[in-house]
């Protein structure tokens, strides 16, 4: 029996379209995976819902329902109180400055350094790369960092939040790997047209590297926003504290927002229930979390793509 060409093509097509047994998990496996993911999501979400509910509830509701997930007797008095004080707003301004300016400085140094390290023909590039890898394995420690910042006259200054940790070696290597994956023919074409190295970097490399730059920028921005130890160790002036250090003072000392003037008892008049330190702490925590949560979705589409592209070569 002679097999026709049409039969051979149809047989090949069935083999290609035939589902593989390993491509699909059994239903019970998918159910277990979904259950585990739901439990992990709840473990992450429930504490946030509890803090949010406490920040929106009146004092008597917090004492009656300490583990609430929805607010009782909704009120915005806690948020009105924290916005009426200048301490939290100044700390917020310091954190915004450190995050914005610090991220710009981080990206400037990381992009230029990664572009130089991506040129393997540059003399000493391998040695410079090792200088970046070694700090990933062995940190300098607190005391050498303190002495360095003191000699630079950066102690008790807002700029210490910007300069400290100017380059993260992991981010530098990730960006360098991304630049390394860009074809050299594109650079050679621009050099033939008379472009300089800075022109190539600004006009071609950076536009092609937007996913990786957005990813690295998100890393740096989140790092600056959540930075706690820099302000705690190197800034003693509480008017220059970043938001995270002020939150620590609020949660532990309960005096940073003049909480000694906040009543911890319930007024006899139900319509004039006073705030409690728990209201203030919960509202302050939500106030610190919300900005970075709002920014993240706008950069999420670049996040995974930038990580994957930056890890192709190494």
Write up this protein:
Belongs to the binding-protein-dependent transport system permease family. It is found in: Cell membrane. It is a multi-pass membrane protein. This protein is mainly alpha-helical. Helix content is 68%, strand content 0%. Helix 4 packs across helix 15, helix 5 runs antiparallel to helix 12 and helix 14 packs antiparallel against helix 15. The longest helix has 34 residues. The chain is globular and about 75 Å long. The termini are far apart.
Provide the helix percentage.
55-70%
- What's the Cα radius of gyration? 27 Å
Largest sheet: none
- Helix-strand category: mainly alpha
CATH architecture: Orthogonal Bundle
CATH superfamily: MetI-like
Order of helices and strands: HHHHHHHHHHHHHHH
Q: Low-confidence parts lasting 5 or more residues at pLDDT below 50?
A: 259-273, 310-314
Number of DSSP helical runs: 15
How many domain units?
1
Tell me the CATH topology. MetI-like fold
In total, the number of strands is: 0
Question: What keyword list fits this structure?
Answer:
single chain, mainly alpha, MetI-like fold, 68% helix, globular, disordered C terminus
Compact overview of the structure:
By secondary structure, the protein is mainly alpha-helical.
